[in-house]
Amino acid sequence: MTALALVAALLGAPKAAAFSIASPQGVDVASWQHPEGAAINWREVSAAGHRFAFVKATEGIGYINPYFAADSQQARNAGMLIGSYHMARPNYSATAQAAEYAAVLATQPQPSLPPVLDIEYAEDLGPVELSAWVREFVTEIERLTGRTPIIYTYRYFWQKNMANTSEFSDYPLWLAAYENRPPRDIPGGWNHMTFWQRADNAVVPGMVTVADVNLFNGSEQQLDDFSADIDVHLGEVLTAGIDLDAIGGRVTELEALGSNNRELVGAILAVAAGALAIGALVVVAQSQGIDIGPATEIVERVRELIAHGDLPVPDLQVMFQTGDYTIGDLLILLKNVQHFAEQIG
Predict the structure, then answer these.
(1) How far is CA 206 from the centre of its chain?
(2) How far apart are CA 33 and CA 188, in angstroms?
(3) Dihedral (C-alpha) 122, 125, 127, 129: value to the nearest 10 degrees?
(4) Is 130 exposed, middle or buried (0-12, 13-18, 19+ CB in 10 A)?
(5) DSSP string covering 24-44, please?
(6) How far is CA 226 from the centre of its chain?
(7) Distance from the CA of 135 to the CA of which of 13, 123, 171, 232 falls in 20 to 30 A?
(8) pLDDT of residue 95
């Protein structure tokens, strides 16, 4: 079972479409969107209403996305604003990773969106060390590129692994939060998102598999200005009360993903402790508004993580004890743990 298969099933794979509210929509892609070498038809992606595309460039030390150059050029040729991101691996030098990322960025067509640090793995670092790593990376990438980088993360990671530091709140935030309305609980001292990754399950014309979909927290003109490094005042479009039905219609499971995850996390911990049969998780997931098929997929993911000794019990305990996180936060955590385990396994 792949991470994409689970998320696609869970969210019902809503079809991305042109939209009518002021916030520009876009995608972010990696090699996952090229199963068995399948190409992306970027003209179809653009025609479906997507204004921008972030393409994964690098990860850690020594990895360059083999589709980075082609996706960047083809998305640009289709009339889209293009960007990139580096997935951090904090067990290795921040300076060296910034240097490799900057070198790859130099090959991307210009103009482009600012560079992005994707930080969602702590590896062996605690909050103080991890903050120092992020500080070193953003300082170096800014020195090398002359641009202020964007920070991509998700709520639980920043609050737990970064100790909810507000040190980086002057950097633009790209927040992953799988909900039907803009999240109210933004971490790290930020008072707004610059980009919001709303879901990672959209069926996008031109792609053979699902992809992440995002909204920019401003107008079309502000997006152009932001890409050109013109200082713009953002934060007034993606407000907590906005009605997003105009974007592909309301998605029932996104409503469920915005709900508190304490009951579902408690059930997963009970399964891990041997106090609950794993099949009972289906009933619990359904009680949270998740359909039987997606609920079964959650059970299978938990079963696989337990079988390989990868279930993040300490993180689940924190989620359960605080009671402050959503089902969407839980799914991002489990997806990341599984991805990380597959990469090092």
Answers:
(1) 21
(2) 30
(3) -130
(4) buried
(5) -EEEEE-GGGSGGGPPP-HHH
(6) 20
(7) 232
(8) 98
User: Do the Cβ atoms of 285 and 264 come closer than 8 Å?
Assistant: yes
**Fold of the CATH domain 3-227:** TIM Barrel (3.20.20)
- How many Å separate Cα 231 from the centre of its chain? 25
Structure token pair of residue 218: 């401003």
Judge whether residue 5 has pLDDT over 70. no
Instruction: Work out the average pLDDT over 189-197.
Output: 94
pLDDT tens-digit map of 319-334: 999 999 999 999 999 9
Active-site residue 28, yes or no?
yes
Q: How many helices (H) and strands (E) does the chain have?
A: 13, 9
Give one DSSP letter per residue of 89-132, joined into a string: -TTS-HHHHHHHHHHHHTTS-SS-PPPEEE----TT--HHHHHH
- CA nearest 192: which of 242, 257, 240? 240
Which contiguous run of DSSP H or E holds residue 200? strand 195-202
Helix axes 292-307, 327-344, angle to 10 degrees: 40
3-state secondary structure of 294: helix
Domain ranges of the chain: 3-227, 253-344
Q: Hey, which residues does 176 pair with through a beta bridge? A: 154, 197
Q: Is residue 245 annotated as part of the catalytic site, yes or no?
A: no
* Nearest-angstrom CA–CA distance, 69 and 63: 14
DSSP state of 320: H
Q: Is 165 helix (H, G, I), strand (E, B) or coil?
A: coil
Q: How far is residue 315's CA from residue 114's CA, in Å, rounded to a whole number? A: 32
Using CA atoms, how far residue 102 sits from 6, 108, 130, 146, in Å, is 33, 10, 21, 10
Catalytically annotated residue among 28, 253, 297, 315? 28
For residue 180 the two structure tokens come to 């039907």
* CB contact at 8 A, 168 and 190: no
Catalytic residue among 100, 118, 120, 329: 120
Q: What is the pLDDT of residues 24-55, one digit of tens each?
A: 999 999 999 999 999 999 999 999 999 999 99
Which helix (H) or strand (E) segment holds residue 340: the answer is: helix 327-344
